[in-house]
């Protein structure tokens, strides 16, 4: 707290400047989503096998729950193998963009569970290590700070911002794992094309210029965290700032991890109902207690011809969809029912060497897998084997890509469950749509 007060005093000496105006309207565009373990990622580790990468992604999902404030009580978990959380950033998908004039390249987490765009800035009072130089707003001729009485500042939750004596808006965001980012709210040119020569430049995008940051995983400092692009429902997320320009719609299409193609993030454009076949939709539910998250209502899960159902007569949203979590997580009681059904229908039992809180088994892959279907309110989504089961060849094990979470926490629909689907968020229509798609063709 003392360090943050000192930080505020530093900010109070800064000058006040004004906004720049938007000059461009878009009908729709797409950009690459780079999985953190792909060769295009600055975090790529050539020495890891595909199985090791997926294992690490599963472990990051546990840390992700911590960040979102929905961490399981570790003291209640049975002791099996000890596991180590990778000392890496929590996000699974990165987006490359260019910021400032002249523009500088940045990779940041694309996060549907966050409502703020922020990058680490210079001069930094406390920053986590990153692969690129810090963004220096004084070297950008188009950067402006945001005043306290401006609309963007007032859109921040009251407990996340203060007004410096100079009149600038100072933000402070805390996450569930005690990590945080703090700095001045600013605006600059942000380009999702190709730098200064790119074709998709926005004006008046508000973002946090973080000069006091602390990002941790299991008590360790995170490496290479350059920032976050919030895609959540909050008023300062990228989606909300683009608003009418993209019809309040965006979608993504995740390719398999071993694909040579790149996943896509699509803003605006033609609706899926007109462009794709087999589209199903479910209501998008917003909760005032967690305004950044996109909630759905899961009614049950089928394995083969048998089904387990969630609590009856409730449709208020019992699972949220999150691009930053790889593995789907279900409440412990419902997970137990689902797991019992998997064992029964597939005729398998848990392998003794299964990692903590992970169900693994041995099976003849030639015999195939039963259909697994997620039943959302108004939408039936049939999944493929790759969405729910991963084969670890070194151990000759299949592992279920679903984990339990504490009863009092929300369930999470993870990104691996949605590989091979185009998923569209329609904020005006208040619905999320799913369509099985060859995402490598985008």
From TrEMBL:
CDD domains: pepsin_A_like_plant. GO terms for molecular function: aspartic-type endopeptidase activity. SUPFAM superfamilies: Acid proteases. PROSITE patterns: PEPTIDASE_A1 (PS51767). Residues 93-435 form the Peptidase A1 domain. Keywords: Aspartyl protease, Glycoprotein, Hydrolase, Protease, Signal. Residues 1-22 form the signal peptide. The keyword Protease applies. GO terms for biological process: proteolysis. The keyword Repeat does not apply. Coiled coil: none annotated. Belongs to the peptidase A1 family. This is Peptidase A1 domain-containing protein. It comes from Flemingia macrophylla.
């Amino acid at each position: 707290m003392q360090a943050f007060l000192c930080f505020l005093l530093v900010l109070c000496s800064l000058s006040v400047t004004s906004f720049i105006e938007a000059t461009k309207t878009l009908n729709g565009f797409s950009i690459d989503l780079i999985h953190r373990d792909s060769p295009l990622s600055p975090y790529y580790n050539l020495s890891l096998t595909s199985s090791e990468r997926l294992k690490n992604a599963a472990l990051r999902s546990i840390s992700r729950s911590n960040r979102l404030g929905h961490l399981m009580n570790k003291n209640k978990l049975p002791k099996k193998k000890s596991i180590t959380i990778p000392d890496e950033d929590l996000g699974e998908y990165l987006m490359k963009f260019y910021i400032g004039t002249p523009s500088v390249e940045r990779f940041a987490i694309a996060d549907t569970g966050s409502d703020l765009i922020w990058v680490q800035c210079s001069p930094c009072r406390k920053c986590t290590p990153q692969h690129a130089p810090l963004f220096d707003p004084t070297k950008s001729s188009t950067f402006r700070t945001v005043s306290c009485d401006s609309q963007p500042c007032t859109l921040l939750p009251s407990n996340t911002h203060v007004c410096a004596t100079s009149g600038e808006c100072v933000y402070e965001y805390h996450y569930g794992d005690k990590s945080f980012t703090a700095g001045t709210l600013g605006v600059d040119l942000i380009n999702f094309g190709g730098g200064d020569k790119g074709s998709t430049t926005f004006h008046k995008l508000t973002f946090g210029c973080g000069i006091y940051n602390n990002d941790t995983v299991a008590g360790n400092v995170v490496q290479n965290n350059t920032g976050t692009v919030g895609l959540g429902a909050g008023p300062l997320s990228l989606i909300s700032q683009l608003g009418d320009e993209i019809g309040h719609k965006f979608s993504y299409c995740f390719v398999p991890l071993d694909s040579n193609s790149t996943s896509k993030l699509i803003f605006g454009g033609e609706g899926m109902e007109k462009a794709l076949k087999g589209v199903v939709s479910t209501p998008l539910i917003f909760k005032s207690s967690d305004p950044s998250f996109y909630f759905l209502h899961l009614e049950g899960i089928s394995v083969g011809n048998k089904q387990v159902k969630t609590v009856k007569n409730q449709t208020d949203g019992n699972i949220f969809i999150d691009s930053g979590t790889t593995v789907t997580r279900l409440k412990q009681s419902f997970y137990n029912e689902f797991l019992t059904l998997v064992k029964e229908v597939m005729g398998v039992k848990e392998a003794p060497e299964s990692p903590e809180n992970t169900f693994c088994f041995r099976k003849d892959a030639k015999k195939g897998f039963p259909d697994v279907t997620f039943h959302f309110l108004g939408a039936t989504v049939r999944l493929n084997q790759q969405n729910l089961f991963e084969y670890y060849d070194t151990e000759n094990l299949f592992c279920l890509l679903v984990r339990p979470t504490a009863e009092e926490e929300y369930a999470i629909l993870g990104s691996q469950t949605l590989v091979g689907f185009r998923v569209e968020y329609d904020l005006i229509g208040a619905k999320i749509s799913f369509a099985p798609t060859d995402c490598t063709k985008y």
